Amino acid sequence: MKWDKILKLAGIVVVVAALAVLAVKPVFPGVKWLPFVKLIKQGLDLQGGVHVVLEAKDTPEAPVTPERVKQAMAIIENRVNAYGVAEPVVQQQGDRRIIVELAGIKDPDEAVRNLIKTAYLEFKTEDGTTVLTGRQLKTASEEKDPQSGQVRVNLEFEPDGAKTFAEVTAVNVGKRIAILLDGNVLQAPVVDEPIPNGRAQITGYESLEEAHNIAILLRSGALPVKVEVMEKRTVGPTLGADSLEKSIKAGIIGLIAILVFMVLYYRLPGLVADFALVVYALLVLLIFAALHVTMTLPGIAGFLLSLGMAVDANVIIFERFREEMWSGKTLRSAIDAGFKRAFVAIFDSNVTTLIAAAVLYYFGTGPIKGFAVTLSIGILVSMFTAITVTRYLLHLVAGSNLVRNIKLYGA
């Protein structure tokens, strides 16, 4: 027996087992940290939250218009993102109403107060002095130069703001003037030259859409619309605790059934595939936690679908492996040939699914995007584990001579 391969196998098993334990619960008493599974955010349908209906109201200074409603939505969405909540919902209902849903908010009253407070736009010099506010900004608009292709945001100030802006830019050439909305820096452009006409340009955007969003936020600061709370209620998880528990049970039973089937039907390769599936699940959950992926019901469905595709990839590989063994090839040659023959089918099916996921993400919204994200991550990781991890482990087992009975390889 080749002890180096045996030691590698043992080391891999120990590391994966330790990660699996640490993924779900702390082991060391007194150590303040969370299992990385707990770091994955849950959506409104899993943990509940707050549902708010806002309505724009006419005022003498700012009557309600479709543009101002969009501006209000942009500001509200900007504030919602500051909470870091999972998949917030901000959508327009009718001509004047805005629906906001926030998951996992502990203090709904404070959240609502922050959502509807008056937007505050300000311009600050490098020393932190506020030199202009949104009251002095007349408008902001995005533009793409037809010749150079440069994307920029054009600013226009009111007469008093134009005078102040001219004085400020004259003494701050070569320095930055930060533009802040609700205390958050939107842009901090460098002043290239004095600007006496009350018009300025901000450049450096990657797309016209990005410039458009910034222009909306800037206009929102200058033209706020009065918003009142029409409805506010705390909502429980759509799925419900009892249903969630049953769903988890069903998932565990289904997973165990798959693992047992793989071992009974494919024997030793099936056992290796089961181990690779554990590695797959750990990698996917680690990526979810690192990317702050929101786990909703559609997201769970995407993850389970990718898990099924990971199992399917192993089935294709092992069937090809069996055919190579039956044709009289040696164990190692059969492993390499089986993976090589299965790769095209696995690659084709996964790429077509990724294309469908990309379409869903591009055209979908909210939960549909969540489904596309979890599905895409799961597919990419399943290809890696099926083609790389499973193959490497099979070579280690075959090279270690731990199992010499060829029938245990499913041949």
Summarize the structure.
Helices cover 55% and strands 17% of the residues. It has 411 residues and is α+β, with helices and mostly antiparallel strands.
Structural class: alpha+beta
- Any low-confidence stretches, pLDDT <50, length ≥5? 27-34
How many strands? Answer: 13
Shape: elongated
Tally of structural domains: 2
User: What is the CATH class name of the largest domain?
Assistant: Mainly Alpha
Largest sheet: 4 strands, antiparallel
Strand order of the largest sheet: 3-4-2-12
Question: Layout of SSEs?
Answer:
Elements: H1 3-24, E1 41-42, H2 44-47, E2 49-57, H3 66-83, E3 89-93, E4 97-103, H4 108-116, E5 121-124, E6 130-133, E7 137-144, E8 151-157, H5 159-170, E9 178-181, E10 184-187, E11 199-203, H6 208-222, E12 226-235, H7 241-266, H8 268-290, E13 294-295, H9 297-326, H10 331-363, H11 367-400
Parallel strand pairs: 1-13
Antiparallel strand pairs: 2-4, 2-12, 3-4, 5-6, 5-9, 7-8, 8-11, 9-10
